[in-house]
Amino acid sequence: MVGLCLTDRWCAVDFDFVGDPRMDPGEDSSSFVARMLDFSLGGVVNALAGGRDNCELHRTFARELEEVAPGAGAAARAALAFRQDAAQEMARVHGLSQVLDLGCGLRAPWVSGAGGRSGGGLWAGRNPLDVAAIVRAVHPGGRVAFVDDDLHAMVAARALRAEGDSVAVRVVDPLDLGAVFADRGVGRVLDLSEPLGVLAVSLPWRFRVQADAAWWVGRLAGMLAPGSVLAVSQPVSSMSDIRREATGVLRTVTWSEGCGVKRPSAVASLFAGLEVLAPGVGDVGDRAVDRGRPDPDTVLFAEWGALARKGA
Q1: What is the per-residue DSSP string for 264-307?
Q2: What's the predicted TM-score (pTM) here?
Q3: In this structure, what are the phi and psi dihedrals at residue 187, rounded to the nearest 5 degrees?
Q4: Helical H segments across 164-288, by residue range
Q5: How far apart are CA 230 and CA 150, in angstroms?
Q6: 277, 164, 294, 166: which is closest to 238 by C-alpha?
Q7: Quick one: how far is CA 230 from the chain centroid?
């Protein structure tokens, strides 16, 4: 049983950790759970975005990241907003009624205030709906599978999203596509022979080499039916010192040496063989406003990506 204090409630959820490859030799379940809850990228992103579903260690990591990577908070808000906006575009524009959210993390935090939206991510007055609610607002029978291996995020996901015939919350490594598509919960909710919307927001950075990330996106696309739409993005910087120091912080958070912040120009490689949808590859925080495409050589720190469609 895992307990987690969220913004306004205490959540307790059952998980089975037997065989989890992240457990150290001789580590007991209690120590493993404590470590996974502390070293949570979802918690750090929540802190960066101004949410409250995080702990002091998450906030410490968030401050460290903002110190070495100016704009990290705006990038986190932009990534969360991109997930929401992409889900809406998939459902409303492309008619997709089923969505697979890979690396779903914590859902976007609510912020105070009232008003409209401007560029740069989640803004005061833009209190976003959950991905499942967005899809169902367009397609009442919509189906969504949330997949992540971030324990902090998944405890929250299971507590706040009721599983059923149309929603699955699965603790699976989102980079292990074989495991994702073979998962019984995912298969129960999604018809994999039909087009899907797939959210892979802030996920490719978990590969050390960008060519491996591009191969992964290509393999993912190859497993989808024609007409599927993918939303793919990752944190980037044009500055080598920012990439190096931000990568160091993120590797500490994730306990992984196999990840890294890349150059903006590297992101286009993720979409080989796919039809990139307007407005193209760029800062996802600029999608909602007409500010033009930023110069990829002058990006301090941002979330860079695009929506793309798989053709016939």
Answers
A1: GGGGGGGGTTSEEPTT-SEEGGGTTS---PPPTTS-SSEEEEEE
A2: 0.85
A3: -65, -30
A4: 177-182, 184-189, 210-222, 240-254
A5: 21
A6: 294
A7: 12
10-residue mean pLDDT profile of the chain (312 residues): values are 44 50 58 59 87 84 94 92 93 97 77 39 49 92 91 71 79 92 94 97 93 97 98 96 94 82 96 96 78 69 96 86
* C-beta of residue 217 within 8 angstroms of C-beta of residue 207: no
Q: Where are the beta strands (DSSP E) in 64-196?
A: 98-102, 143-148, 167-171
Nearest alpha carbon to residue 201 among 172, 245, 231: 231
76 and 111 Cβ atoms separated by less than 8 Å: no
Alpha carbons 52 and 40: distance in angstroms, whole number:
14
For 22, which DSSP code? T
Task: Report the amino acid identity of residue 279.
Answer: P
pLDDT at residue number 39: 65
Q: Report the SS3 class of residue 132.
A: helix
